[in-house]
Amino acid sequence: MKTDQWSAAASELQADRRAELGDRIPELETLQAFFRDELPEDEADVVREFLVLYPEVAAALMADESAPPVPGPGHPAHLSAAEREAGWRDLAARLDIPGEPITPPRAAPRWHTLWAVAATLAFGALLVPQFLPPKPEVIEVRELELDLTRGSAGAPSPLQILGNEKKLLVKLSLPPAGRLKQFRVELLAERDGDTQLLWHEEKVATDGSGTLHVVLPARRVPPGIYQLRLFLEGVSSQKPTWEFRFETF
Amino acid sequence: MTKKDELFQSLYRRYLPGVVSYLVKFGFDRDKARDLAQDTFVRVYEHMDSWRGEAEWAFLRTTAQHVALNEIRSRGTRKRKGAEVAIDGPKALELPSLDREAGARLIEEQEQVRQATALGKAIRELPPRLRGPLELRLLGHSYKSIAATLRLSLDTVKTRIHEAKGKLREMLGHTPEEPGHED
């Protein structure tokens, strides 16, 4: 009998014994006490019998207590923006609460607000520079690390864009072959099965560790699916050297 | 939207992927984990009045744990009910005529089924303290993972598996090979 056959036999036995156990599942508080070593040995043995049949429950209860990161594409728990939105609508209907979108579009400013902003800007432009020394532009930047060494041409990776971000510093870790090179970087939007070039930058160089730093304007990436295409400088190929797909929400 | 609804929507927006991801760890498939995540948030909404607003993830995680265990419990209930009504014996299979090679394969498969059944029966006869670690080992778990799951020391796990294999050898005349990780 081969190893996998033993495993199959053990799986079958596990399924049978699960059926026999039925609904006699310990309460959460009992399981928590077991993992804190607070149960008397006879009660602990009952919990062990259960955990042998449901080892994944033990793994979940013992898992890191911090919130798990947003699962990427390919992960069984990955959800697209549309799925999240549909889930929210369903939940709002179940609970009878307003089902306003979870990613609401930014409200258009009113005219009087625009006039007030314009007047303030004009005043600032005329007076403030005369009294203040020049300052470097302050931008809110968030670093996003994407690992191209793990392959990237499949389902898009999710990136959460926060409302207050103006620019995103995307750090792309390149495979060894791409280190110490210069690239033309293109940002394309995927729409209706087609792609549209939104932005590009020439001669973006990797740093010593093989990471490419790309600063993207956040306003260019409202919720949707995008591609970052990297073309090796000096190579006249139409095909990108690397490509990274991501989905913003 | 009321303040409560706004907070609830904010929790949903920030933690839905995390809750689904956490429920997948319980062994549920993606669709089931999504359904259970919705149930988790319903329960969260119902208990929000008694929640003081701190440790958001801890609150969601505990709620998801309750929902996951309830689901396992209700599946168990369905299985037991299913077992009670399954009173018909297996129907006779109509086998096609077999050539010599296919016949040999069938005999081999039947032998494997017989051996697997014998192993299952033998494992069932082991005392629970030996059976548990061995079952997990046969399912591919590492010694370290078995020790963590059952809150036993690594030495205790190794000793019990060794003992269990000895008893199986007595019963079956051979010992199962160990699949899974080497520690």
Overview of this structure, please?
The complex is a heterodimer of chains A (249) and B (183). Chain A has 249 residues and is of the alpha/beta class. Helix content of chain A is 34%, strand content 25%. Chain A has a five-stranded mixed β-sheet, with no helix packed on it. Chain A has a three-stranded mixed β-sheet with strand order 1-3-6, with no helix packed on it. In chain A, α3 (41-53) crosses α4 (55-62). Chain B is mainly alpha-helical and 183 residues long. Chain B starts with a helix and ends in an 11-residue tail after the last helix. At the A-B interface, α1, α2, α3, α4 and α5 of A face α1, α2, α3, α4 and α5 of B.
In short:
Chain A is α/β, with parallel strands linked by helices and 249 residues long. Chain A has helices at residues 3-21, 28-35, 41-53, 55-62, 81-95, 111-131, and strands at residues 141-147, 157-159, 167-173, 182-191, 194-205, 211-217, 224-232, 242-248. In chain A, helix 3 packs across helix 4 (55-62).
Please give the alpha-carbon distance between the first and last residues of chain B: 55 Å
Low-confidence stretches of chain A: 104-108, 133-141
**Total count of strands of chain B:** 0
How would you state the average pLDDT of chain B, rounded? 82
H/E topology pattern of chain A:
HHHHHHEEEEEEEE
Main beta sheet of chain B: none
Using only C-alpha atoms, the radius of gyration of chain A works out to 27 Å
Assembly state of the chains shown: heterodimer
Strand order, largest beta sheet of chain A? 2-8-7-4-5
Q: What labels would you give this structure?
A:
heterodimer, A: 249 residues, alpha/beta, three-stranded mixed sheet, 6 helices, 8 strands, 25% strand, B: 183 residues, mainly alpha, elongated
